[in-house]
Amino acid sequence: MNILSIINPRATCLAIVCLVVGMVSSAHAVPANQVLRRVDRQQIFGSCCVSWGETVSVVEPKAVVPVVVTWSTDFHLESQIIIGVGLIVNGGPCQFFGAPHLEEPLTFASQDDSRTLEFVVEPAQGLQVGNNTFTLCGGSLTSSSDSIVIGFNTLEVRLK
Amino acid sequence: MIAIKRHAMCLAMAGVVFGAATNAHAVPQKQVVAVTINQIFTGVCCFSWNTTAFANEGTKLTPVTVRWSADFLQNTLNNFNVGIMINGGPCRLDLGPNALGSFAVDGRSFIVGTWEWIVLPTDGLAPGLNSFTICGGGPNDAAKVTIGTNTLAVRTSK
Q1: Which residue would you say has higher pLDDT here, A103 or B86?
Q2: How many CB pairs lie under 8 A apart between chains A and B?
Q3: For each of chain B's 158 residues, which pLDDT tens digit applies?
Q4: What torsion do the CA atoms of B23, B92, A67, A118 make, to the nearest 10 degrees?
């Protein structure tokens, strides 16, 4: 017996259409854990390097590819100090990818400044098949008594 | 014969739906914008800075990343803020960094900066075309900033 003859053709048709819609939608979705937005202010003290408590994650395919992590932030430094910024990949050590840092602007130190930093993580730098986590880390490169105030910021990871 | 026609019709419907859904995710013409003139903005935050890009959302809304990269020159010694208007709504300064920066004010030196904002579905996104307009301003009526060459890019998919 033809199985289609015992299934309502309209129901079958509707199911196929729904399946197609679902496949197309999911193929373009950006998982929420690939982006993070913080709208508070936190002051972080100490020498480099400690976790700054902001994590995003992305799923790598079987053929692991590089990822791009972008951090865009307001910040404030009280004095002429240098703050190193890096990433903890999958719970490992704090690594610098291109050694970005934050410095006190030349003038007008009473207000926040803003920067966008981009890190490129290669497969050999700790990436693995499946889920990968990326946590911001850093600290002062000049003195353990230094601190940085991090304002509103966004963190995003995407496969390259 | 009737069964074959039904299957053909079903396949056609699936094709139409697939085509429509795929088209909804295609890169719109103004998902990226480049502005190559200098514009002077004076006044209290916040008002439109005239640069708008668009992103197409499917029926299942996803986060949108908005990146603005600009040359700018602070004509007055003020704290300037920058943000985005979503679909013509109020100027949002809480979607990521909003400080324009603090730099030397000599009236002639442009500085370059980049800001990236994350817009979540709950921030006012809707299925179909969504607009994102740069906005900002200073703390008083005399605050003046010049925005030079700049680019605005939005994307919804990884």
Answers
A1: B86
A2: 133
A3: 555 555 555 444 544 444 444 444 454 458 999 999 999 999 999 999 999 999 999 999 999 999 999 999 888 888 899 999 999 999 999 999 999 876 656 666 788 899 999 999 999 999 999 999 999 999 999 999 999 999 999 998 64
A4: 140
Domains located in chain B, CATH noted:
28-155 (2.60.120.1340)
Chain A residues in contact with B98 (beta carbon < 8 A): 74, 114, 152
Residue ranges covered by each domain of chain A: 32-159
Under an 8 A CB cutoff, do A20 and B158 touch? Answer: no
pLDDT of residue A23: 44
Fold category of A32-159 in CATH: Jelly Rolls (2.60.120)
The predicted pLDDT at position B7 comes to 54
For residue B116, which residues of chain A lie inside 8 Å, CB to CB? 70, 72, 116, 154, 156
Whether A154 and B79 lie within 8 Å, measured CB to CB: no
In this prediction, residue B156 carries a pLDDT of: 87
Nearest to A72 among B25, B97, B100 (CB): B97
Q: Are strands B39-42 and A50-60 parallel, antiparallel or unpaired?
A: unpaired
Nearest Cβ partner for A113 among B101, B114, B156: B101
Cβ neighbours of A4 in B, within 8 Å: 3
Do the Cβ atoms of B97 and A151 come within 8 Å? yes
pLDDT at A105 over 80: no
B2 chain-A contacts, CB cut-off 8 A:
none
